[in-house]
Amino acid sequence: MRILIVGGGITGLAAAHRLRTRLGEDARIIITERSGRLGGKIHTVGFVGRPVEAGAESLLAARPEAMELARDVGLGDDLVHPVGLKPALSLEGRLRDLPAGTMMGLPADPADVAAVAEVKEAGGSQRPLLAPGADMSVGELVRAQLGSEVLDRLVAPMLSGVYAGDVDRLSVRAVMPQLAAALERHSRLTEAVAEVKRPSTGAPVFASIEGGLTRLVTATSACARADVRLGMTVRELRQTPYGWEVVVGPVPDPIRLHADAVILAVPAGPAARLLRGVEPEAAAALSGVGYASVALATFAFDHIDLPETSGFLTPAGGGKTVKAATFSSRKWPHLGKRRSILRVSMGRLGEEALLQHDDETLARTALRELGEHLGRRTPEPVAHRIDRWGGALPQYAPGHPSRMAEAREGLRTHHGIAIAGAAVDGVGIAACIGSGRDAADQIADQLASGSA
Ligand SMILES: Cc1cc2nc3c(=O)[nH]c(=O)nc-3n(C[C@H](O)[C@H](O)[C@H](O)COP(=O)(O)OP(=O)(O)OC[C@H]3O[C@@H](n4cnc5c(N)ncnc54)[C@H](O)[C@@H]3O)c2cc1C
C-alpha cells in the first residue's frame, strides 16, 4: 500500500503519523515537500543562543490534539507552559489591562469590558441571531449586537492575533463554531457567549516544547517513518484506473509517482491547482480562500524595561503596522532570562506591500512603534531578525465551513483522496493536527474497505 502526502507541514506529518499507527509497517507513506525542510509554518531557529520561533509560537493546550501528539511522539515531558501573565491592550498610546473572562473579546456581561469599550447592546428581538446553516461575518454580528467599540477595541485585535484578517470578512461559523451553534438558540449575543464560554479551570491554555516547536515536527516525522522527499513540488495530480499519479520534478523531465491514495496537506492555492482536473468544484471552493501576510521582527535586548504583561495587542488604524508584541522571554521560561527577547508582529490582510520593505526598514518600524506603545524610547537591541510569511494565514469568509463540506462531499466520489490543513479546518496547529488525523482516518477506512 502506498499513500502519498503532499505537504510536509504539521498537517501532513500528523496524517503520516496516524496512517502509520492505523496501517502498520507494511504501508509505504511518502511525504513530498516543496521546500528544503519539514514543518511549514513551524520553524524554530537559533537566536542569541536560544530556540526562538520564527513562525508559529505556541500550541493550544485547551484542545487535546497537539498535546496528544506531543505525548504520542515522546515529548510529553518536554511540554512547557507560559507563566501566568496576561497580554495588555494598547489603546490611545497606553497599555491597559485586557478585560478578563471574555471569549475572543466578547463579554458574557457588558460590565466586564466597560473599562475599555462602550457597549451598545441590541435588544428587543426574540429571534435567534443565526438561522440553522446560515453564516455571517464577525464584524456584522458584533457591530450590530454590542457596538463598534467592542468590535474595534477588543474582538478585532484578538482575532487579528490569529488571522491578521478583516473582521468584516471572517466567518462566525469558521472562527467561533461553538458560538455560532449557540447563536441558533439565543437572541442576545451576551447570552450565547455565556452559554459557550468555558469557566477558567486554571489549567494552562497554551504550551510549547523545550527546545522549540520544530522538535514536534522532527519527532512526529521520526515516529511516522515516512519516506520524506524534500525539494519536491507536486505539480499535477490525476486519477488512474489503478489509483493516483502525481507529477513532480522539472517540466522537461517530469517524475511520476504512483499511489493508492493521496492526502493534500498544502495551502488552498496549490490544493486548488492540483484538484482542478480531478474535482473542479472542490478546486473552485479552495481557490476562493484568501490569505493574509505577516512579518515578524524578533529583538534581543541586554536590558529593556517592560510592564508586567506577556505582551500587547493593538487595534488597527492610525497608519500603524504593528498588531501585537510578545515579550517572549518573559512569557516562556524556557527562553531564559539572560537577555530579553521580544517578538513584534506586523501586517494585516491587504498590507502585503509591507513585506517588500528591507529588513532594516521593518526592524526600525517595529522598534519605533514598539516604543510608542510602551510610552518610552526602546534601547538598541543587541540582535534582531525578520521573518516574512507571505500568504500564510487563511481567511475564512462567511460560508467557509459549508463550502469545504461540499468540496469534501465531491471528493468522496473519487476514493482515495482527502484534503486537510489550515486552508480547510482551522488555522491553529491543534486544528491542523486534528484535520490531518481525520484525513488519515478517512483514507485508512477506504483502504481497509477496499474502496480506494
Ligand atoms: C507567523 C505565524 C504565526 C503563527 N502562530 C501560531 C501559533 O502561535 N499557534 C498556532 O496554533 N498556530 C499558529 N499559526 C498557524 C499555524 O502555524 C499554521 O496554520 C499551521 O502550522 C499550518 O500547517 P499546515 O501543515 O496545514 O500548512 P503549512 O505549514 O503551510 O504546510 C504546508 C506545506 O506544504 C508545502 N507545499 C506547498 N505546496 C506544495 C506542493 N505543490 N508540493 C509539495 N509541497 C507543497 C509547503 O512548502 C509547506 O511546507 C501561525 C502562523 C503563522 C504564519
Your description of this structure?
- The protein is of the alpha/beta class and 452 residues long.
- It folds into 3 domains: 2-39 and 215-289 and 397-448, 3-Layer(bba) Sandwich (FAD/NAD(P)-binding domain), CATH 3.50.50.60; 58-97 and 200-212 and 291-395, Protoporphyrinogen oxidase, mitochondrial, domain 2 (Polyamine Oxidase, Chain A, domain 2); 102-196, protoporphyrinogen ix oxidase, domain 3 (Orthogonal Bundle), CATH 1.10.3110.10.
- The chain contains 15 helices and 20 strands.
- The strands form 5 sheets. It has a 7-stranded mixed sheet with strand order 8-7-16-17-18-15-19. It has a 5-stranded parallel sheet with strand order 10-2-1-14-20.
- The mean pLDDT is 95.
- The termini are close together.
- Residues 6-12, 32-35, 40-42, 55-58, 60, 233-234, 265-267, 270, 294, 296, 389, 392-393, 421-422, 427-429, 432 line the site of flavin-adenine dinucleotide.
